Amino acid sequence: MLFMDIITWEPKDNDEVTRRYSEWSWPDSVEVISEWTDLSTCRYVAVVDIKDSESYAIAALPWKDICHIETFPVMETPKLMAMMSEYV
């Protein structure tokens, strides 16, 4: 299932987040669709395909002490529109 993560952190933690990210990698059980870094603030966005809750926990837990993570399910808009036409 596709999820979007919006991850933010305090400016004072920017060097530590950068250091950790350079040494970290997504678990093999998480497929990264795309990643973006907000150039204007301390924010990172990723769209990932997560197979199960354990995979999500493995990816998120190392960041819980320094980042605020918002995760929510997403779907491509054309696919949603096609589904809606069937159910509305």
**What is the C-level CATH assignment?**
Alpha Beta
- Beta-strand content bin: 25-35%
The averaged pLDDT comes out at 95
Order of helices and strands: EHEEHEH
Task: Give the N-to-C terminal Cα separation.
Answer: 23 Å
The helix tally amounts to 3
The main sheet orders its strands as 2-3-1-4
Count structural domains: 1
Kindly describe this structure.
By secondary structure, this protein is α+β, with helices and mostly antiparallel strands. It has one domain: Alpha-Beta Plaits, CATH 3.30.70. The protein contains 3 helices and 4 strands; from the N terminus they run E-H-E-E-H-E-H. Strands 2-3-1-4 form a 4-stranded antiparallel β-sheet, covered by helices on one side. Strand 2 (30-37) and strand 3 (43-50) form a beta hairpin. InterPro entries: DUF3303. It holds the Pfam family DUF3303. This is DUF3303 domain-containing protein.
